[in-house]
Amino acid sequence: MPKPIEATQTPPTAASTIEAKLSSQSTNKILDELYRGLNIFYDEGANGQYVPRTIMADLDHSSLDSIMSNQEIGKWFRPDYSLGSTGSSGNNWAKGYYTEGPELAELVMDVVRKSAESCDCIQGFQIFHSIGGGCGSGMGCFITNRLQDEYGGAMIMTNSVFPSTKTVDSVLAPYNSVLTLHHLIENVQMVNCFDNHALNQISQKLFRIESPEMVDLNEIVAQSVTGITSSFRFSGIINSDLRKMATNLVPFPRAHFFMNSLSPLGSSFDNSDLKVEQITSQLFNPNHFLVDANPKNGKYLTASVIFRGDVSSSSAEEQVNGILQRDSSYFYKSIPNNLQTSICKVAPPGIKRTGTLIANSTSILTIFRQLSSSFSMLFKRKAFMKSFEIEGMDELEFSEAISNLNDLIAEYELQEYEQDNHINVDDEELGGGESEHVE
Description:
By secondary structure, this protein is an alpha/beta fold.
C-alpha cells in the first residue's frame, strides 16, 4: 500500500521527478568519468586503493625522503617507485648524464618497464624536471633518450622548469639548460615551459606571498598540469590524448615548446564564481603566464583554451572569438583555426569554473635568446669547462648544443618574418600597389 502524502509535503510533479532523475544521472555520469580518469594516472591496488603511477628519482635522496616521510602525501606513493642515491650531481649536467646519473636511471627504467606492463595501452610519458641543475637536466635527458629508444611509438611530454632569467640560480645553469634543450628539441614531442622568475612573480603579486617557498611554486605548476591533462582524464572534444594534443598544437616538428597561463590566479581565487569573460581575459593577460615572456612580443602559432566546470559552449566560443577579433595581429594567419576551445564539465574542488591556456607562441624566443646569450658569454671564454671535461664531455658537445638552439631560434624567427611578410603581401593585394595605365 503506497504511503499517503502528508499535508506538509508537496506532491511530486512529473517535472520534478524528471529533474531529480536527470540530476542523479548527471551525478552518476560525473562519478563514472572520475573513476575512468583514475585509470589514466593511477593503478588500483589489491585493497581497492588507487596509487599514482608516478616514479620519483633524485641523485640526492633527501628530497625524496621528505616526501615519503610526510604523513599526508607520503602514503599515496609506492616506496619501491621512489628511487634515490647517496651521490650528487653538483649542478653539473655531465654528472647527471655520464657519471652519477646512468646507474640510477637504469633502476628507473626497470620500474618503468614494470609499470608499463600493467597498462592496457601506453599513450606516453610525462616528465617533471628542472633544466638548470644537474640531475633534472643530465639524468632527465638520459631517461628521455632511453624512453625514446624503448617506447618509440609513445609520446613524451615534459614539464620543464627553466632557471630564472633575472637572478642566477647557478653559474652552470646556462650550460645545463642549453645542453638539456638540445635533447628536448630532438627527443621530445611537447614541452610545457615554466620558469622560476614568472612563478615567483605570480606568488608575490597575485597570491601576495612575500617570500614564496618551493611548495608555493610547485602548487602553481600542479594547477597548470591538472588543467592541461583534464581532457585526458575526462571526456572532451579535442586533445583527448597526448598524440591528439601534439597534432593540434605542433605545426612544425621542432616548434613544440608551450607557454601556459591559468585563471583564476591569486586573489581571484577568493571569487570562485568568475564569469567566462573574466577567465578568458585573464588567460591572455601576460601577468598570468607561467614563463617570463610576454606573448604580445610574438605570434601565436597555435593555442588551446580548456575551460572546466559550468561553462556553455556558446559563451566559450563567443569569448574566444572575441579574442581572435580583438588581437588578430598576434595570431599566425597562415594556420586556419589555430585557436581551439575545449570544455571539461568537471571543475576542480571548490571552484565553479576555471581556464587553462596552452599556447605555442614565438614569444618563447625571449627565453631561448637569453639562454643562448648567457651560454655564449661563458663558452667563448671556456669558463667552467673543466668541470664538464673531467666527467667525460668534450667541447664538440657544447658546440652542437648551442648550434641546435640557435637553429631553433632561427626557425621561430622565420615564422615571424613570414607572417609579417604575409600581412604586407595581403595589404598590397588589397590595393596598396600602383596600377598600370595602357595608352
